[in-house]
Amino acid sequence: MRVLLPVLWPIAAGVAILVYTGMCNSKKKALQGSPAPGETAGDRASGSAVSGTDAVTNAGSTASHGQITTLDLIYMAALALETVFVILAAAGGGSVRLFSLTDTLTLGLRVDGLGSLFAVLTSIMWLLTGIHSVAYMKHEEWAERFYGFYLIVVGVLVGLDCAADLVTFYVFYEMMTLTSLPLVLHELTKEAVQAGLKYLFYSVGGAFLALFGIFYLANVCGDLSFTAGGRFTAEMAAGAPLLLTAVFCMIVGFGTKAGMFPLHGWLPIAHPVAPAPASAVLSGVITKAGVLALVRIVYFLVGPDVLRGTWVQAAWMVLALLTVFMGSMLAYCEKVFKKRLAYSTVSQVSYVLFGLSLMNPVGFTGALTHVVFHSVIKTCLFLFAGAVIVVTGWKKVDQLRGLGRVMPLALACYTMASLALIGIPPFSGFVSKWYLATGSLASGTGALGFAGPVVLLISALLTAGYLLPIMIQGYFPGQDFDGKEIAERGLSKKEPSLFMLVPIVILAAAALLLGCFPGPLVTFVETIAAAVMP
Fold it and tell me: CA-to-CA distance for 373 and 376, rounded, in angstroms?
């Protein structure tokens, strides 16, 4: 039950919110549709128009005052309890068999070190982003629907993190795509619908490509349970002529969710149209589902010894490095703030994929530490972008000039997160990139091993080029900056509400502290690395 509770609890809470909200809306529509005695259709239409105006006015008043409702408190309590349940499950371990699909296919959950790392990271990021969303959604419609699906998705993600075998993982992976789709579609504008469809098509297409590999592995191996170090022996690999092709299909297919070239196109489209809290978890957490899939396949099913030195490793390294460089260049050229951060995610998550493709303990350690650091940093940056949108309405980079006069503390947090993403010591990004660079040089992969640190360095320079000018122009806009709009709109020293600001501050502090004291995390990750590559 300890293993199952973190999966079932948020799903049940989210469904309850959706059902209750639907019942309330249905009752409200029924009452509005019932005419009073002697009321004509014209009177009812006129009254509806007036009520609609009042509703808009009241909604604006609520948003401006940031009133916290009972539903908001229930939502945050559910997220807090989920974090507690996940930590208890991670500490206690255990496994549970859910049910059997066939005589040979069963669904089950098992908590191991890797699953614990991803599940705890997911729940903490989900909690902090959820707190931020309470204030953010006061400025959006259909907050209750957002809350419901937001809770459901975290339950599905924890199930994915703790999947005991590849079939269970795939079931939760597809559920994750379907349940997270409403977060992208939330605003239901033309752009949101188009972005949602693109997200769905890319995700399902990538999953179907991976499904070919799953079928092949099931036919060759039979047992698809995750085992540290992999289940394939050299003899089994020699007797499976399409094994490398199947694994490469899975790398490209599951790499879609991680934003790896060539199936990265959904990411910069989905992020700008989704609410900022949804963008934060899409970038900081959901992209890591693709990473986890590749870790499970390469290190817990097939085995790194089978793939090391093959064309699959070389092709994977090339795709990862190409994505790192391409994402950084596109981010550098992008003018829309959230879209710039989305392209940055394309680049940064491929740092992780590159580390995994090295197939040595140092690169593996760098990859998993960068999973944690990037999740913290990019969640902070997207929440900052959301705070900017709520406070000022500014969405383009060239509008952010003089932002330090509006929200100096929030901009300071953005600066800390930016320095961490660039990899400047003592911030956290430096630690993971150090392991990635040294792992690349020690990988024995020839020219690709030497190309790795070069591409990472170029990407770091581009990252500085697209993040730091926002800070510089925010605090030092220049003598020709008159600040007329800031004065006219009363934006001077107008920090976001505490519900928005506190998660941003916590994440910015974590980006620094994890760099100053990386020992416990590195030791934990090295334990996982030693298990999969003894």
Answer: 5
The residues near 453 (Cβ < 8 Å, ≥ 6 apart) are 437, 440, 441
Please determine, for residue 25, whether its predicted confidence score (pLDDT) is greater than 80: no
Cβ–Cβ under 8 Å, residues 246 and 217: yes
Q: Which residues contact 348 (CB under 8 A, 6 or more apart)?
A: 327, 370, 374, 378, 421
Structure-model confidence comparison of residues 380 and 102, the more confident one: 380
Whether the CB-CB separation of 466 and 340 falls below 8 Å is answered with yes
Query: Running DSSP on this structure, what letter comes out for residue 259?
Result: T
**Whole-number pLDDT of residue 304:** 93
The span from the CA of 116 to the CA of 510, in Å, is: 19
CA distance 511 to 119: 19
Q: 323 is written with which tokens?
A: 């994505």
For residue 47, pLDDT beyond 90? no
Question: Looking at the predicted structure, is the pLDDT value of residue 472 above 50?
Answer: yes
- Cβ atoms 312, 247 nearer than 8 A: yes
Which helix or strand (DSSP H or E) is residue 27 part of? helix 5-33
Q: Is 526 exposed, middle or buried (0-12, 13-18, 19+ CB in 10 A)?
A: middle
Q: Which two tokens stand for residue 424?
A: 């400047």
| The one-letter amino acid at 223 | D
Q: Can you tell me the distance from the alpha carbon of 43 to that of 49, in angstroms, rounded to the nearest whole number?
A: 10
Does 45 have pLDDT greater than 70?
no
Per residue in 251-290, pLDDT tens? 999 999 999 998 898 989 988 889 999 999 999 999 999 9
Scan for tokens 């080029």, then name that residue: 465
- For CA atoms 210, 215, 220, 225, give the dihedral sign: positive
> CA 529 to CA 520: how far, in whole Å?
14
- Per-residue model confidence as pLDDT tens digits over 431-462: 999 999 999 999 989 999 999 999 999 999 99
